[in-house]
Amino acid sequence: MRKTEINLGIDDQQRREQNIELFKKAIYHLGRQEFDLCVSHLSEDVVCEWPYVPRPDLPDTLVGRNNVRAMFQQMEDLEYDPYNYQFDDIHELLDPNTLIAEYHAESRHRPSGKPYANRYISILRFNSDRKISLWREYLNPLPVYDTLNIEI
Predict the structure, then answer these.
(1) Fewer CB within 10 Å, N- or C-terminus of the chain?
(2) What is the pLDDT along the chain (152 residues), one digit of tens a residue?
(3) In the CATH hierarchy, which fold is given to the domain comprising 10-148?
(4) Which of 80, 96, 100, 78 has the alpha carbon at shortest distance from 88?
């Protein structure tokens, strides 16, 4: 049986690398609570999903950059230190405009002094304008509940 090679082309690989860097920038700015810079990497009609909602008062889906920015502002109002995001792995897929990222973060809730740490897996899609058009983030909500003293 003859082995079939897939020629991804330099353009696809360059696109993947650009998308990875774009997401790393978005996460960097999110962690530093530079929300306007973070959302500048999102498409106007971005869809953000949290299949496991990190707080019971948050929706599991937000559509639109402005709505995501408003939700990020709520995070700032919770008085966390900036998040220290670290990437564990990035999985490149056949589609150069889709990737899966594994990362973790640490922070501290200032009012309680409690540490916060969590792991994340995100599925991301990028549009032709080099903006994130889908950000589906999986995280464990239990560390959030513990830090904020939310009863389950």
Answers:
(1) N
(2) 444 445 555 599 999 999 999 999 999 999 999 999 999 999 999 999 999 988 888 899 999 999 999 998 887 777 899 999 999 999 999 999 999 999 999 999 999 999 999 999 999 999 999 999 999 999 999 999 999 888 87
(3) Nuclear Transport Factor 2; Chain: A, (3.10.450)
(4) 100
